[in-house]
Write a sequence for this structure.
């Protein structure tokens, strides 16, 4: 009788083990379905699939955690696209509450604005961030919310509002490690909009005031790229030399120099591009 009981429990344990990968696959399938529906413009159905991902995700499984993060960053757009702004705002608040990864959260806030723009909903996306700030001025993620407001205004062509918001970040969050990234993201938004003069001004502020921040190197890269785009070769060279001299120990260096080399190549500056590629080979041979 004892052996039968042992066999019975062993069988149950085996079923539990076998169920785990199926559960993960189920969450992944829901995410795939959500993305397919979203791309097809079926946002109402996509919203339910994103919710399924969030609800089913195992908080102890790395794969599920990642899928839940992706679902939370996509859910606000599904609500905005179906004219449900209160739900979109609640979804943004949930995303901010459940995710604290500094390098990725600002990208999620930024992405919501860019995706909303494709649906002519930039203003609504910016209003969500502003509404949360109005209700909770001391929100723990206020830096990212203000950054989102600035990026929305950049896309709306309201440069004075961008400047006002960035000045607020500087005044109230200068000691916050996230401030440099927030301004860098706003500058990046300008650069993608081909507003390189505005972007360069913001990048310059970051490198002048927060040169030691981990991601300040991206603003230094931004100075090179904006100067190239503006055909200001002297400024581009000066910014590049500073990058090579002061940020060589950064974990991002090889990636960034390759990126700049690509920009030089697109400008028809093959010799400069070749020199930078050789720099990576010589200085960072371990990089892929």
């Amino acid at each position: 009788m004892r052996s039968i009981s042992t066999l019975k429990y062993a069988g149950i344990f085996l079923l539990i083990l076998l169920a785990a990968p199926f559960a993960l696959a189920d969450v992944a399938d829901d995410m795939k379905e959500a993305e397919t529906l979203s791309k097809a413009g079926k946002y109402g159905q996509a919203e339910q699939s994103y919710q399924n991902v969030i609800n089913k995700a195992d908080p102890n499984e790395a794969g599920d955690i990642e899928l839940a993060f992706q679902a939370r960053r996509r859910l606000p757009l599904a609500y905005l696209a179906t004219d449900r702004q209160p739900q979109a705002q609640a979804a943004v608040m949930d995303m901010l509450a459940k995710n604290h990864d500094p390098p990725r959260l600002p990208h999620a806030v930024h992405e919501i604005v860019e995706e909303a723009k494709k649906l002519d909903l930039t203003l609504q996306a910016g209003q969500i961030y502003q509404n949360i700030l109005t209700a909770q001025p001391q929100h723990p993620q206020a830096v990212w919310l203000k950054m989102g407001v600035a990026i929305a205004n950049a896309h709306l062509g309201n440069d004075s509002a961008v400047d006002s918001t960035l000045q607020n970040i500087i005044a109230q969050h200068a000691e916050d490690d996230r401030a440099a990234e927030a301004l860098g993201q706003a500058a990046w938004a300008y650069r993608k909009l081909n507003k390189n003069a505005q972007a360069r001004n913001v990048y310059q502020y970051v490198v002048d005031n927060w040169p030691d921040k981990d991601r300040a190197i991206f603003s230094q890269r931004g100075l090179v790229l904006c100067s190239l785009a503006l055909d200001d070769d002297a400024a581009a060279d000066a910014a590049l030399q500073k990058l090579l001299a002061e940020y060589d120990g950064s974990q991002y260096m090889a990636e960034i120099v390759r990126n700049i080399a690509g920009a030089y190549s697109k400008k028809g500056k093959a010799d400069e591009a070749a020199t930078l590629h050789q720099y990576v080979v010589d200085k960072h041979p371990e990089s892929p």
